[in-house]
Structure to design on (529 residues):
């Protein structure tokens, strides 16, 4: 809708314009400040220019009214234009707002948590954002590949093997254990120790030379937990890439960096010259013991990504990875690739309350709130929605008890109730959506037309949300549309009124937009509440 409106205005004015949506719909459906940018050229007041430009739109088929208001040009759409767009949308059904396949491939990497324990609530934020962006991108015609990078190399894997052994010895065989200062904790380790003993026998827990074997075995069990917990949130991946499986290429990549003079040696360590790319210091890629660092793994992985020839790369990282951005982008640039095609989204921390008090940590991990616990507590729909209500770079705090309320304080209930209300109205009228699709919008009141207009804005909202990687635009849109539906339901007699079938067609358009937007968020719209 917005593209059509913008195109028509630009054709008449013979200029590119900025099109805005007024905060108050009484000013019109769209507005442009074009007169202000023309003031210097025309040497006139924007107020006078806007008045003159408004006359160019007399009797235009799209616009019921074009007004000059304080230098702005405001446009109100005709009933016929809104009706035509609604007819096309209703005919498309679930394909409404879906765009043709674009020749653009995107690799979207998210979660990528170390396979050393179950996912905690902080991981859930990036997981839900990534999955929703993939839904959106695919819907808008991009080819999205969802990828999980398994950090299964390095000291964290050694620590996992040790932690499983110690947990097994203490809790299965009642040995007196002195734990090292840093180790993994939680009941899940005891479960893994049981499986380890079942497969390899008890003696393996006493053999320090087998820690790596235990770690590899434990990693697969932890990955199974992670995959299951993600599936409970309706999240699945196209690819899993193992860090360990990529290390065979490190020597070749290291040679490339050395050849181009992007590495140097100091104190038996090898450094990347990332300071040349704006980093605040050069970074170690090989320790003095000859073992590559975590950064080396990132360099290998991003070289692998670029070798697979995507048009764009998106990483969703935790906020604690902020310092890695420049060093990773430096390595991409040093290896001859375009680092501008990599977009990194940082996901901020999450704070949870329950009844106004801090949410209790999980015994199964010892010191974190498990993602699976919250999913079971409030359901995947509520968890997905609430995590999408703020932009990723904003701290998020919410009370899980609020998401169990059956009132407007619970946005998921409020939006679903609007959709269910529409379905119940059709049931009471003993009609379905097809029965009213041929109704016209002649003589419809402004509130009904506003509902149609807001429903038809969905395409603009989806594209804006994906372009800016800001899903809050969709959750805000859904809540606002739901509030208009509830208000309309309470203010107008629907069943048995003279305008009954016209109103039902309006509501069917609303239902379509609600259903599609919720579906893209990974939430199934409820027909009955």
């Amino acid at each position: 809708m917005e593209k059509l409106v913008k195109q028509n205005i630009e054709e008449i004015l013979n200029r590119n314009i900025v099109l805005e949506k007024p905060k108050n719909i009484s000013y019109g459906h769209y507005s442009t400040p074009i007169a202000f940018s023309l003031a210097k050229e025309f040497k006139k007041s924007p107020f006078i220019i806007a008045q003159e430009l408004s006359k160019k739109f007399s009797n235009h088929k799209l616009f019921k009214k074009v007004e000059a208001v304080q230098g702005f040009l405001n446009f109100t759409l005709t009933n016929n234009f809104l009706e035509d767009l609604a007819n096309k949308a209703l005919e498309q059904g679930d394909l409404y707002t879906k765009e043709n396949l674009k020749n653009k491939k995107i690799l979207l990497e998210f979660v990528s948590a170390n396979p050393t324990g179950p996912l905690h609530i902080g991981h859930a934020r990036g997981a839900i954002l990534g999955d929703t962006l993939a839904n959106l991108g695919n819907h808008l015609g991009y080819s999205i590949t969802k990828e999980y990078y398994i950090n299964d190399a390095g000291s964290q894997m050694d620590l996992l093997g040790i932690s499983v052994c110690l947990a097994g010895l203490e809790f299965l065989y009642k040995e007196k254990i002195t734990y090292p200062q840093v180790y993994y904790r939680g009941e899940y380790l005891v479960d893994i120790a049981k499986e380890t003993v079942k497969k390899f026998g008890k003696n393996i827990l006493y053999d320090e030379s087998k820690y790596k074997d235990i770690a590899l075995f434990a990693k697969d069990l932890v990955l199974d937990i992670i995959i299951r917990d993600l599936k409970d949130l309706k999240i699945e991946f196209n690819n899993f890439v193992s860090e360990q499986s990529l290390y065979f290429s490190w020597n070749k990549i290291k040679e490339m960096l050395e050849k181009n003079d992007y590495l140097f040696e100091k104190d038996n360590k090898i450094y990347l010259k990332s300071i040349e790319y704006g980093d605040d210091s050069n970074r170690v890629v090989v320790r003095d013991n000859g073992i590559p660092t975590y950064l080396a793994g990132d360099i290998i992985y991003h070289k692998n990504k670029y070798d697979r020839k995507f048009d764009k790369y998106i990483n969703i990282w935790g906020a604690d990875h902020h310092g890695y951005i420049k060093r990773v982008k430096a390595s991409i640039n040093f290896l001859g690739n375009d680092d501008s095609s990599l977009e990194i989204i940082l996901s901020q921390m999450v704070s949870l309350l329950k009844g106004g008090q801090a949410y209790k940590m999980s015994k199964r991990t010892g010191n974190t709130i498990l993602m699976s616990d919250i999913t079971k507590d409030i359901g995947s729909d509520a968890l997905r929605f609430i995590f999408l209500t703020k932009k990723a770079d904003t701290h998020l705090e919410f009370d899980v008890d609020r998401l169990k309320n059956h009132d407007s304080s619970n946005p998921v209930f409020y939006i679903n109730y609007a959709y269910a209300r529409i379905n119940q109205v059709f049931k009471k009228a003993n009609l379905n959506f097809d029965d009213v699709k041929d109704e016209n919008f002649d003589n419809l009141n402004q509130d009904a037309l506003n509902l149609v207009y807001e429903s038809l804005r969905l395409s603009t909202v989806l594209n804006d949300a994906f372009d800016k990687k800001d899903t809050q635009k969709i959750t805000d849109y859904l809540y606002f549309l739901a509030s208009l539906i509830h208000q309309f339901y309470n203010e107008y007699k629907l069943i048995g009124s003279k305008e009954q079938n016209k109103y039902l067609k309006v509501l069917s358009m609303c239902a379509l937009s609600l259903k599609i937007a919720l579906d893209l968020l990974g939430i199934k719209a409820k027909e009955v509440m």
User: Anything to note?
Assistant: The mean pLDDT is 94.
